[in-house]
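Q: Okay, next protein. This is Undecaprenyl-diphosphatase from Candidatus Methylobacter oryzae. I've checked the sequence twice, so it should be correct. Can you predict the 3D structure?
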Amino acid sequence: MDLILTIKTIILGIVEGLTEFLPISSTGHLILVGDLLNFNDDKGKLFEIVIQVGAILAVCWEYRAKIAAIIIGLPNQPQAQKFTLNLAIAFVPLASLGLLFGKHIKAVLFKPIPVALAFIIGAFVIIWAEKREHKIRIHEVEDLSPLDALKLGFAQAFALIPGTSRSGATIIGGLLFGLSRKAATEFSFFLAIPTLVAASLYDLYKHRDLLDLATDTPYFAAGLIAAFLSALLAIKALLRYISHHDFIIFAWYRIIFGLIVIATSYSGLAQWTVD
């Protein structure tokens, strides 16, 4: 194994895990960090997709009891059937729009400066959403209706714009639609499972010609493990944080980070990819 490449994969795995479930955009961070590490070719972009599996496994582990209960209850428990149906409904908008427009979005927006702008715009959306009066009508994810799930699915679809944040779009959409912070956050975790699994499998199949399993497997494994461990820490920390705080701090982080990317680009301190 190449030591430098291994370090790069571990760094990207940590970045993926720490940012996937926070409203700060894992894709945006991976694009920027991949650019800095000069790991932004087609193989690098495929790697960024695949290591999301590590973050998915972290959610599955954290909610293993609930997931097991849903699977066991699917044949005859209406609550489990309703929850699964809601996840399927919420998954459809992003999957459909991604298939239609994903290629064009990647060609135009998967670059550092558009990501930085999305960071900043998304921050002001978070601030606006948090300053509004919250009228909570849904306290637990089990209370969601199919219509609520569809609305959250369309909110998640904004994450097709890199730098927006899949979890952030779902969570803030949830707040706007009357979900508690806990319900919105937990639903974003569960919705990540079908969303990220589908994205990973689709990209693996589409770019299977780039894969050399004998060579790539150790690097994928290192990234997956790093993503799993860091995602597990991030999930636990976020659940503790939202019990007493709002999401404003993440908005300020997004603004500062976005401005740093733009400033370093135009000052020449960092040579970001622009085409």
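A: Here is a summary of the prediction. Residues 78-109 form the longest helix (32 residues). The two ends are 31 Å apart (CA to CA).
Q: Noted. On to the next one.
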